Amino acid sequence: MTDRFLDRFLWHASMQPRDDLSSTPSSRSSSPESRGRESLTLDPWQEELIEEIRQRFTGGSQTILEDIHERVDRVLIDFVLTQTGGNISEASSRLGISRPTLRNRLRQLRLNT
């Protein structure tokens, strides 16, 4: 996952949820991945995330969720800690998790505070 992708991910994650997602019949895709389900209009960061997942899937990865989750957590936690001046209490509040959970995740990711 590139830094450019992660920067976009964080920028888009901070934006309000989109209300213009389309699931009209004309927007349905005929690709094998989406056959039988409604197709949504994706933001560029979502398309890049799907491409990253696709590469891992076709590469035979057995830990796709864990790998992506760890990479996103690293960037997200680092960003929030930077924005809160390293304040664990405020960062955990902004992330919606407890302080002990944040501290445990920091240890797991080997991130310094």
Automatic annotation (TrEMBL):
Provenance organism: Neorhodopirellula lusitana
Chain intervals with Low complexity compositional bias: 22-33
Protein name: Regulatory protein, Fis family
Domain DNA binding HTH, chain residue ranges per copy: 70-108
InterPro entries according to UniProt: Homeodomain-like_sf, HTH_Fis
Entry-linked Pfam families: HTH_8
Chain segments carrying region Disordered: 17-42
